[in-house]
Amino acid sequence: MEIIIQPTLEAATAIAARLVAALLREKPRAVLGLATGSTPLLLYRELVQMKLNWRRATTFNLDEYVSLAPDHPASYHSFMRENLFRHVNLRAKNIHIPDGRARDIPALCERYEKEIHKAGGIDLQLLGIGSDGHIGFNEPSSSLASRTRMKTLTERTLRDNARFFGGAARSPHHVITMGIGTIMEARHCLLLAFGSKKARAIAGAVEGPVTAMNPASVLQLHPRATLFLDEAAAARLKMKRYYRWVFENKPAWQKF
Ligand code: F6R
Known about the structure:
Elements: E1 2-6, H1 9-26, E2 31-34, H2 41-49, E3 58-61, E4 63-65, H3 76-83, E5 95-96, H4 105-118, E6 124-127, E7 149-152, H5 155-160, E8 174-177, H6 180-184, E9 188-193, H7 199-207, E10 225-230, H8 231-234, H9 240-248
Parallel strand pairs: 1-10, 2-3, 2-6, 3-5, 6-9, 9-10
Antiparallel strand pairs: 4-8, 7-8
The structure holds fructose -6-phosphate (F6R).
Residues 35-39, 62-63, 128-130, 134-137 line the site of fructose -6-phosphate.
């Protein structure tokens, strides 16, 4: 795992954006795994401002709420359209987000896995982290080998996301999410975490045991996982000083 701690979310996001931009320039047909939520908002804004060429790129989103229509304002379809897709030249046929209204959810999940495979696998997977350690919507106790499927959100995640629905009671309880096994097949996982609410989950994911009780801890087993943190999210890391030293003393060829 590479842990990059920056003073602010703006500074951390700027480096992450350079990394995504470099991939799109080097590999115009890149396959990107995308996340939603508050964490990647600034990243998407920066990527839009960079005026990159997305025409040959393909995207797969991590998740979507079951039962929400794509034009529901809180759906992840709407989120992606508003924050990225309508601002860049991605082709509609190359955009993939699970359909929350699918009648046959297991069949949709199987198709989603096949489409990722057919696209050549994910080059770069963007991830946020839940305050309980979830990645995608793989809540604690999710199988570390899981594939795309339906999951039930915990009360904590419902509370965390209540702001998008005008209260936890109105939030859908079920979601379709890429599995942890699916995420782990991405060639590079890039996780962003900002703010003190994420500090405990980050400490567990980075320095705790690999456990289904903190799904992000599985990234310890990933050959290429890069974590971008602000000071508040890094606050509980015991080896903070070492991670900083590593980043500041990277050999030139390893710099972003
Ligand atoms: C969203 C997703 C989730 C979020 C996580 C953090 O596509 O997969 O894992 O990344 O819930 O959400 P925010 O960024 O709103 O704190």
